[in-house]
């Protein structure tokens, strides 16, 4: 075995509150009941979880809370403690605060100290960025074990008191697509039975001269009364670009590893929405691979989603199985992919 191999030992995830179905969501937003059927048919996301109580507006969970739970589960599953962690990395687009960094608050909660910590400020590719940084640091001899986290708390960007039917479609689609959640993985140069090797990671910014597909604003005391829309998504641009970018990065992962499509046993595709993921998988054309998707059940949880996919895929993989995960970020267009192999 190559001593620089980095293994995924375990995964943990966390969701806040009960699942919110489309009928409950549309009723809370004050829209006609037929909107629930529209979400089912055209978005394909059936349920999601929110970090606030929809009825009272009371906050249930912070991103720190969710990451603490996911990270604690991952460590326990690997049979490790805080003292075994050599570095902590978090990928998120929605930290609890600008400062302190959420990754440091999570480390404090878990009892981790005197180690390097990193926070990747990114959209749907942030979790893959975190995996990449952890893999490179561990491979270079910077410790043996990393706790890698990813999560988002998107509901805080939505005004649930607004007239939903009067919102621009670019705002409407975000309310029905996104949910909140967190995930974590323990990576190590020392394998455990059942672990998978993280063979390769590809990350490429491809947004030169392209307008952002999604914008999420920050407001402070000085501009809190700004009339800028907090979150806007160009869903049409995403529909057009994501399938192509997913295919591009899949080809690059396979070329870099000298694998063929027939070598893929599990495909972890981008998780934008139920219908969008179906479109992407069809376009990728990897019929021999088992699809691992969860967005229809938990919503688009951003940087948490790769961990929910890994949580489903890893127990099913046997020796010799190979898996490829893909992610595309529309904020400024990043394509990402990673490959795992059970050995």
UniProtKB/TrEMBL annotation:
Question: Which Gene Ontology BP terms does the record give?
Answer: fatty acid biosynthetic process; secondary metabolite biosynthetic process
| Pfam families, sorted | ACP_syn_III (PF08545), ACP_syn_III_C (PF08541)
SUPFAM superfamilies cross-referenced by the UniProt entry: Thiolase-like
Q: Output the InterPro entries linked to this UniProt entry.
A: ACP_syn_III_C, ACP_syn_III_N, Thiolase-like
Chain ranges of the Beta-ketoacyl-[acyl-carrier-protein] synthase III C-terminal domain: 254-326
Q: Does the keyword Membrane apply?
A: no
Family annotation (Gene3D superfamilies): 3.40.47.10
Q: Which key words are in the record? A: Acyltransferase, Transferase
Q: GO terms for molecular function, please?
A: 3-oxoacyl-[acyl-carrier-protein] synthase activity
| Beta-ketoacyl-[acyl-carrier-protein] synthase III N-terminal domain sequence ranges | 120-196
Domain of life, source organism: Bacteria
Protein name listed in UniProt: 3-oxoacyl-[acyl-carrier-protein] synthase-3
């Amino acid at each position: 075995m190559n001593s620089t191999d980095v293994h995924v030992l375990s995964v943990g995830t966390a969701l806040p509150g009960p699942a919110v179905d489309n009928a409950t969501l549309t009723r809370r937003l004050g829209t006609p009941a037929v909107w629930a059927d529209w979400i089912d048919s055209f978005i394909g996301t059936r349920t999601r979880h929110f970090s606030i109580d929809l009825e009272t507006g009371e906050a249930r969970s912070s991103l720190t809370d969710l990451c603490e739970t996911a990270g604690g589960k991952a460590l326990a599953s690997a049979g490790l403690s805080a003292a075994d962690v050599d570095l902590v990395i978090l990928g998120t687009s929605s930290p609890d605060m600008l400062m302190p960094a959420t990754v440091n608050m999570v480390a404090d909660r878990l009892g981790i100290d005197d180690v390097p910590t990193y926070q990747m400020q990114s959209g749907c590719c942030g979790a893959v960025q975190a995996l990449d940084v952890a893999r490179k640091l561990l491979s270079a001899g910077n410790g043996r074990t990393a706790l890698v986290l990813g999560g988002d708390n998107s509901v805080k960007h939505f005004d649930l008191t607004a007239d939903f039917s009067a919102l621009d479609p670019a705002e409407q689609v975000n309310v029905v697509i996104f949910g909140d959640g967190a995930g974590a993985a323990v990576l190590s140069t020392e394998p455990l039975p059942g672990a998978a090797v993280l063979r390769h990671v590809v990350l490429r910014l491809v947004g030169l001269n392209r307008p952002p597909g999604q914008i999420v604003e920050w407001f402070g005391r000085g501009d809190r009364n700004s009339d800028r829309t907090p979150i806007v998504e160009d869903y049409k641009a995403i529909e057009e670009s994501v399938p192509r970018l997913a295919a591009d990065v899949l080809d690059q992962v396979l070329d870099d590893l000298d694998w063929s499509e027939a070598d893929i046993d599990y495909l972890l595709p981008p998780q934008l929405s139920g219908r969008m993921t179906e479109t992407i998988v069809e376009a990728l054309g990897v019929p021999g691979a088992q699809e691992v998707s969860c967005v229809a059940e938990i919503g688009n949880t951003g940087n948490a989603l790769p961990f929910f996919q890994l949580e489903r895929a890893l127990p099913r993989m046997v020796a010799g199985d190979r898996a490829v995960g893909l992610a595309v970020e529309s904020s400024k267009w990043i394509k990402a992919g990673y490959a795992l192999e059970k050995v």
